[in-house]
Structures are given as structure tokens and as C-alpha cells.
Amino acid sequence: KDTKAQLVEIRGELDKANARLNDVETRVAEHKDKLQNTDEILSEILTMQFNVIYIAPNHNKKSGAPSMAHFVEKLLRENLAIPPSTPLQIQRAHRVLSLLPPDGSQPRSILVKFLCFTVKEEVLRLAWQKKGFMLNSSKINLDHDYPPEIMAMRKEYAEARKVLKEKNVRFRTLYSARLKVFFEEGVKTYNTVEEATADLASRGLPVKVITPPATPREKLQRCPLWRGVGEMF
């Protein structure tokens, strides 16, 4: 009788434990959904704009466009074969805020903000398929509008990307500053430029190996923000 009572008590405790476990699993699933939604929203916010690397100066006088947004829309439709029936929904377009470049130099980049995220992604896809296009004998490239520190980190892969391109090895630069390379034996993703250059060099590719900063001071000096401040003096 005592044993039976103990078994009933143990079963009751197990039922309670299972109920608590189910409750925890439900809450974890709910939090995962919330985190996924948050990641999707954050990703959309981070990629809401893209850069047009080069736009001819004095566009209003040359093109007759009433505004920068009209000029950009005309430029994209003509060079990416976007039909008039497809609304681009450009909210605004303006040159980046910086000092005016000297006469004869490359004009400032233009930031373009779309109302619709999917339209922006489609415009970028079309531009990347064409690998940019020409305007008045100048090359125009389109890309996401990344923060300066991320742009600086992505530029550190420049030599590696150049070598991969010369060797006809397919690759992609991922957000925020990672490199995905499609080797014949499989796909490899590098999280840092140090990791990428070391592995590419070990595979026989002629890239300069970038070593991690040895000291905190060196790490600070390689920080994009530090370099930007240093250029002011």
C-alpha cells in the first residue's frame, strides 16, 4: 500500500514536471518567433537604402528632371529595363552629406530610399545581374547603404575578392562583413578578413595574409572610427 501510494505520488510529480516543461517549451517557441520577427524587421531597416556610387553632376540641367528622385527613377528605368507599369515608389533621393568635391572629380554618391523593401531588392538584383551600367562614359554601381564602419570592414576584403575573381572562383560578400566562397569541394564562409586571407593563402591563392591585431592599441588603430579621426589631422 505504501509502495502504491509512493508510485501515485511520483506519477503526480512527473505529470506536474511534464506540464511545466510543456509550458517552458511553449514560451521558448513564442520567444523564437518574436526574435525571428525582430531579426526580419532589423534586416529590413538595415537594408532600406542603397548607394548609387556615381551620378553625373548637374543632373537637373542635363536631364531636365524636376528633382533628384525623378532623375534617379528615369536612370533606373532606362538602364535596368524597368517598365513604366512597375512602380518604383522612390520616397526620396539625395546626395550624401559631405564636402563638395573639387571640380573634375567624382561627384558624391546618391542615397535612394524606397517605400517598398521588395522593390528595392528587385532593383538591386537587376543592377547586380548587369554588373552595373554606364552613364556618360562613367560606371555606375548600386549597393546597400551600409554604415561607414561596416563599409570599411567590407573594403578589407578587396584584395581577396580581386584574386578570387581573377581565379574565376565564385564568392559573395555577406552582411555585415563576411565572405562566402564557393570552392569546387564545397562552400566556405569567413567571418573575418584575417580568417579569409589565412585560409585562401593556405589554398595557394596569392593573397596577403592579414594578421589579427597584436595589442589593444593596434586594434584601436585599425578601427574605422579611429582611422576617420586620424584623417582629420
From TrEMBL:
It comes from the Eukaryota. The keyword Coiled coil applies. Keywords: Coiled coil. The keyword Hydrolase does not apply. Residues 7-41 form a coiled coil. PANTHER family: L1 TRANSPOSABLE ELEMENT-RELATED. This is L1 transposable element RRM domain-containing protein.
